[in-house]
Amino acid sequence: MFGGIGAAIGTFAAGKLYGIDQNMIFWLASGAGVCLLVIVWKMQISAHPQQGLLSGKASPVTLRDAVSLLKIKKFWFFALYVIGVGAVYETYDQQFAIYYSHFFESKARGAEVFGYLTTGQIFLDAIVMFFAPWFVNKIGPKNALLYCGLIMSLRIIGSAWAIGPVSISLIKLLHGFESSVLLVAALKYITANFNPLLSATVYLIGFQFSKSFSSIFLSTGIGHMYQSIGFTSSYIVLGGIALCFTLISFITLDKARVFSSQPVPAN
Asked: Where would you find the membrane-spanning parts of this chain (predicted)?
């Protein structure tokens, strides 16, 4: 949450500086990075291990255990959702600021308003984060992921139908209602469907790596799509793809809420 507040302040400052001197944005970011280094350097961390961790020892996770995830159908279905919905949406969002500026008289004015809007959206993220765990527990991890998929699909398609600064700004704010929920839902889904010893591995490979790696190829294809058919038509295609994968995930994702104990993969 505090990271979101920091991002909101940084985005607000960047939006103001864009119309003054764009180089100042990089100086400000560099100064913030130096401050972070000083804070981390001065931070005092206790070297004593927690006594609670000494009472029981869990068997270490091996490379063989991690590779065994590739044999689990649930893992591939989860990765399919992340790639078909999450990666497509993230690639769309990377170029959204350029499209947003088209609704204003100048790029500088568009960037300034986009900075204000992003600041408000990030504060909305922080507010939603308070309720996200309760919301995900209420409807279940699977339904929460489907909810996020619908919001993302709606935002992509809605961007193609925006007719002015107000409508495109409201569509941008939809991001605040799904980003925090998506993070909590993904973590809840992982802990409910995979061995807890492998939860970090599932998150890194099934969520972070699969989304980032697929974005490499999606960025190239979507970039060519923008040039050939324009933003509006591209958003309809991308929104349709995300919606299709959301509907597929309605069938493929597991609705478990609590992990049922299974034998740990043999070392």
From this structure: 24-41, 75-93, 113-132, 144-164, 232-253
